[in-house]
Amino acid sequence: MLDTVITVIIACGIIFALWYLLKNLTTLIVNSVIGLIVLVLVSQFNLLGMESFKVTWGAVLVCALGGLPGAILLIVLNFAGINI
After folding, report:
1. Residues 8, 32: Cα–Cα separation, whole Å
2. Residues 6 or more apart whose Cβ sits within 8 Å of residue 43
């Protein structure tokens, strides 16, 4: 009897965790895609007078994890002379 109760509690916990992750997953994906688009636009079209701004694997990783705030952070760091 106790094994059944523990199994049901664990299953409910897993279902709740998956529901929470999938609910927030679309927001995270959209934010990451917008960050990558901003990163590519700034790099390709030399926006903000940033000819030295290069897209590297580190910059892509920061944008993929941070999204739009990550892209803004990379732009500010580039203005300061720090390239990732």
Report:
1. 35
2. 50, 53, 54, 55
- Mean pLDDT per block of 10 residues along the chain (84 residues) reads 83 87 84 90 78 82 88 87 80
**51 token code pair:** 């000819």
Structural element, H or E, at residue 21: helix 2-44
Six-digit token string for 1: 């009897």
Q: Tally the C-alpha atoms within 13 A of residue 13's C-alpha that lie toward its C-beta.
A: 6
What is the predicted pLDDT for the residue at 34?
92
What tokens were used for 33?
A: 């895609």
In one letter, which amino acid is 65? L
